[in-house]
Design a protein that fits this description.
Elements (H helix, E strand, L loop, with lengths): L1 H21 L25 E16 L3 E8 L5 E5 L2 E14 L6 H14 L3 E7 L20 H5 L2 H5 L7 H7 L2 E11 L4 E10 L12 E10 L11 H11 L1 E4 L16 H13 L5 E6 L6 H23 L6 E5 L12 H7 L1 E6 L2
Parallel strand pairs: 10-11
Antiparallel strand pairs: 1-4, 2-3, 4-8, 5-6, 6-7, 7-8, 9-12, 10-12
Length: about 350
């Protein structure tokens, strides 16, 4: 046991030395490849983009109120779940830029600089907060588990960061280190059809991030509303009937719900029409209506949400298509039966679905 312990210590020490020698963040002299400013916001003079992500169509939730704790619920990293008391959900193009500010610039200074720019553009400030008044742990970035969620964690977790940043890169360092001096601003720019969040903070001293010690980071999210290009073809009643007859089930992606709710969107009506037609044609057919979610939020939260959504579909089919009670049973499985990895947005989109399973 003693030899094993010594070997373990040696391995850990070697890994630590590797990170110190080969994985240090370094002061940039140019933006990361492919990055570009938002033209109507610009940047603080002398700053560099150290991380960049752009999605053509995304769901972006903008906190417009303090984060509130839900002590009985946990996120995917076993942190106490926090959600904003008020928020807005924007569907459209989403860009995230992470800036390293020049030495000596404070989080408050950069937020007020953006504040002035937003007002010049005719924008409206929706919410502002600093440090602990924002809710959650004000000293944590998006990395870590077993404590309180932070505002950074509401926007993304560490695995989301590694999806567009290499481990120990400048961007990874800027987004996962301990922080102080947190400042936050949410705004709307009506003429641009855009919503903006600015989260700024000062980095502490964490090993490979020595180069960024005491430097300010600004995480700028810009969401521009636009209508979704509908590419999912509604599955016809005959196709549903065939799949259920051959495989015993079918997964449907044409039933949509409001974010974090069990309210069915009107866009779902074409898919529901086909389910109703199939059930009317086959009066002896009984189904399990199974709700599936991605892994955003705690296990218990998603189990409850998936069940509520399945119940909503059952009630809709009974109310609008005259399906007799007893032919349909609602089941919620949360994220326990994924169709793809939850580590990417594409995977999470595949996991958000309603399945019809033949019942007896």
């Amino acid at each position: 046991m003693r030899i094993t312990a010594i070997i373990t210590i040696m391995i850990v020490s070697l890994l630590f030395m590797y990170v110190q020698v080969y994985a240090d963040a370094s002061l940039p002299h140019k933006d990361v490849k492919g990055a570009a400013d938002i033209d109507f916001l610009g940047r603080y003079q002398g700053s560099y983009i150290v991380a960049f992500q752009k999605k053509g169509f995304d769901r972006f939730i903008l906190p417009t109120g303090k984060l509130k704790a839900f002590p009985k619920e946990r996120d995917s990293h076993n942190n106490i779940l926090f959600k904003p008391e008020k928020s807005m959900t924007i569907m459209g193009q989403h860009t995230r830029l992470v800036y390293l500010l020049p030495e000596g610039v404070t989080p408050l200074e950069i937020v007020y600089d953006y504040r002035d720019k937003i007002k010049e553009e005719g924008g409206q400030i929706l919410y502002e907060c600093e440090n602990a008044e924002c809710g959650g742990d004000p000293h944590r970035s998006c990395s870590g588990g077993g404590g309180d969620m932070s505002l950074s964690m509401f926007f993304q977790h560490e695995e989301d960061v590694t999806a567009y940043n290499e481990l120990f890169s400048n961007g990874y360092c800027a987004l996962t280190s301990r922080i102080t001096g947190q400042e936050y601003l949410a705004a709307r720019l009506p003429e641009r059809n855009a919503y903006v969040s600015i989260l700024a903070y000062t980095l502490g001293n964490e090993g490979y991030c020595n180069a960024f010690k005491n430097r300010t980071i600004a995480v700028v999210d810009v969401a521009v509303e636009k209508k979704r290009a509908k590419k999912i073809v509604v599955i016809k009643a005959a196709e549903m009937e065939k799949a259920i007859g051959q495989k015993g089930s079918i997964a449907l992606y044409g039933i949509y719900f409001d974010t974090d709710k069990a309210t069915i969107k009107e866009d779902s009506r074409p898919e529901l029409d086909q389910i109703g037609a199939m059930l009317r044609k086959n009066p002896a057919l009984k189904l399990l209506v199974v709700g599936h979610t991605d892994d955003q939020g705690s296990f218990d939260y998603n189990m409850k949400l998936s069940m509520q959504r399945a119940i909503a579909v059952v009630h809709d089919l009974e109310k609008h298509y005259g399906i007799a009670p007893g032919r349909l049973r609602a089941v919620g499985v949360g994220y326990s039966c994924p169709a793809a990895s939850n580590r990417t947005e594409q995977g999470r989109a595949r996991n958000r679905r309603v399945a019809l399973v033949e019942d007896h």
